[in-house]
């Protein structure tokens, strides 16, 4: 049985799939990363069932990344975290997902939640301000 933590992306409208496709361009094939899209036609019960079916198959210490806090995606993940050994982080972005993929070989992703949150937050920067600061020496 594979105990490598898995990553599940829960997003509105399916942009998790597009993010996975984009990261494949950068790092190649990605195993153990799945996505479930919440679509306008989905009921809460249908979405909960889809997510629960996937979470039940994930090793302990796996991670669910959601698009934003307070939405159905994060609320469903938070509810399932009461019954399954998963971590849940809202605020999915490419840097956060890359960091989570890199951390999987270090064991349970639930042991690295604070570090992953810091990475995701640090990746949101004012690019023009950053360039000016790094090129002016100030």
Describe this structure in words.
The protein is built from 6 helices and 4 strands; from the N terminus they run E-H-E-H-E-H-E-H-H-H. With 138 residues, it is α/β, with parallel strands linked by helices. The chain has one domain (7-136): Rossmann fold. A 4-stranded parallel beta sheet has the order 2-1-3-4, with helices on both faces. Helix 2 (44-55) packs across helix 3 and helix 4 (94-103) runs antiparallel to helix 5. The N and C termini lie far apart (53 Å). The relative contact order is 0.17.
From the structure above, extract its key features:
alpha/beta
How far is the N terminus from the C terminus? 53 Å
What general form does the structure show? globular
Give Rg in angstroms: 16 Å
**How many β-strand stretches?**
4
- Helix count, per DSSP? 6
Oligomerization state of this entry? single chain
Strand percent estimate = 15-25%
What's the name of the CATH homologous superfamily?
Phosphotransferase system, mannose-type IIA component
Structural class category: alpha/beta
What helical percentage do the residues reach? Answer: 40-55%
CATH topology: Rossmann fold
- Report the order of strands and helices: EHEHEHEHHH
Describe what is shown at a glance:
The protein is an alpha/beta fold and 138 residues long. The chain has one domain: 3-Layer(aba) Sandwich (Rossmann fold), CATH 3.40.50.510.
């Amino acid at each position: 049985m594979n105990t490598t933590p898995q990553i599940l992306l829960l997003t509105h409208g399916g942009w998790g799939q597009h993010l996975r496709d984009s990261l494949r361009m950068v790092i190649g094939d990605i195993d153990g990363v799945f996505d479930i899209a919440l679509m306008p036609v989905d009921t809460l019960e249908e979405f909960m069932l889809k997510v629960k079916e996937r979470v039940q198959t994930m090793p302990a210490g796996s991670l669910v990344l959601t698009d934003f806090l307070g939405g159905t995606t994060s609320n469903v993940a938070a509810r399932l975290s009461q019954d399954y050994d998963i971590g849940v982080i809202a605020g999915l972005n490419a840097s956060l997902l890359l960091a989570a993929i890199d951390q999987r070989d270090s064991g349970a992703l639930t042991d690295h939640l604070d570090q992953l949150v810091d990475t995701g937050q640090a990746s949101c920067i004012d690019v023009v301000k950053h360039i000016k600061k790094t090129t002016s020496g100030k």
